[in-house]
Design brief:
The chain has 254 residues and is of the alpha+beta class. It folds into two domains: 38-101, Cytochrome Bc1 Complex, Chain D, domain 2; 111-250, Immunoglobulin-like. The protein is built from five helices and ten strands; from the N terminus they run H-H-H-H-H-E-E-E-E-E-E-E-E-E-E. The strands form two sheets. Strands 2, 4, 5, 6, 7, 9 and 10 form a seven-stranded mixed beta sheet that branches. The chain has a three-stranded antiparallel beta sheet with strand order 1-3-8, with no helix packed on it. A hairpin with a 4-residue loop joins strand 5 (174-178) and strand 6 (183-186). It is elongated. The structure holds heme C. Heme C binds at residues 44-45, 47-49, 53-54, 57, 67-68, 71, 75-77, 88, 92.
Length: 254
């Protein structure tokens, strides 16, 4: 909760800052923004398709990593050594990062970051299995215990799981999708599990996930259960569970 207040406070202070907009020089042959590691990206990323694919895409580091993994799994993209991959990701994240960072106006505060819900609490959530620290290569398992409120009569709910990445705007989240054994993270707001029956249960969210070489820092997990079919980012006045958060630190120096 303390963490939460701090984040709200920092969000307000960011809102008061002016955002400067720079004109960026672009590479003549590809149109890529000229910056550190642009040559590396030209070499590795414009062989099969033009750089237009990249220029028209915006995403967090995790989104870019997901795209690279997808091309490696299905399109024959080579595997990079960690150093090369990190440099490519540095370039993509810096120059083609999430759109909101370049926007003049910040996105609105998602309702699920709002103060406590005055409406009915439909369930109580609790994390299970999450460690405070992970190193790349370690295995992450995440479960969620859901305790339904007996008085909640509609009896079906959706589970939303989001992660906030280090050094990204407070309003940017990656939403857990896919399955527990093949989790993916998507900037598009969506529930992870839908229409769960009203019974006290423990759900496996992420199973045997090998932590990839992501940037060092604090990743904050959020979980929320809402009435099935509602979007907590648009409808904050609906019945829902408690919102739980858990910071996880990746690659902390030992
Ligand atoms: C071995 C071939 C190959 C290489 C090398 C390659 N890609 Fe791709 N990529 C593809 C194919 C195939 C597609 C899907 C067809 C298309 O959009 O042209 C694709 C699609 C994309 C897309 C569009 C995805 C979407 O959602 O539409 C992006 C962005 C992208 N690549 C970025 C990159 C980056 C960054 C690199 C360098 C790390 C890279 N590509 C290197 C084969 C490759």
């Amino acid at each position: 909760m303390i963490l939460f207040k701090t984040r709200l406070a920092s969000l307000v202070s960011v809102l008061l800052l002016n955002t400067a907009v720079w004109a960026q020089a672009v590479d003549e042959t590809t149109g890529l923004i000229i910056n550190d590691n642009v040559e590396l990206v030209k070499t590795h990323c414009t062989v099969c398709h033009s750089a237009q694919n990249i220029i028209h895409q915006n995403g967090s580091r995790l989104t870019w990593l997901g795209l690279i993994r997808w091309m490696q799994d299905t399109q024959g993209l080579m595997t990079f050594d960690t150093d090369t991959e990190n440099k490519i990701l540095d370039y993509l994240e810096t120059n083609y990062g999430p759109k909101t960072t370049n926007n003049y106006r910040r996105a609105l505060l998602p309702p699920f970051l709002m103060p406590p819900n005055p409406y009915q609490t439909i369930a109580t959530l609790q994390w299970q299995g999450l460690q405070a620290n992970y190193q790349a290569g370690e295995i992450l398992n995440l479960e969620l215990a859901v305790n339904f409120q007996e008085s909640y009569s509609k009896g079906q709910l959706d589970l939303w799981i989001a992660v906030h990445l280090p050094n990204t705007p407070d309003s940017d989240f990656q939403f857990l999708t896919g399955t527990a054994t093949q989790p993916t993270f998507n900037p598009e707001p969506q529930a992870f599990l839908v229409a769960l029956k009203a019974s006290n249960d423990t759900y496996t969210l992420i199973k045997d996930f090998i932590v990839p070489p992501l940037p060092t820092g604090e990743y904050i997990f959020y979980a929320l259960a809402v009435e099935t079919g509602t979007n907590p980012l648009q409808e904050s006045d609906r019945n829902r569970s408690n919102l739980i958060t858990q910071p996880v630190y990746l690659n902390r120096a030992e």
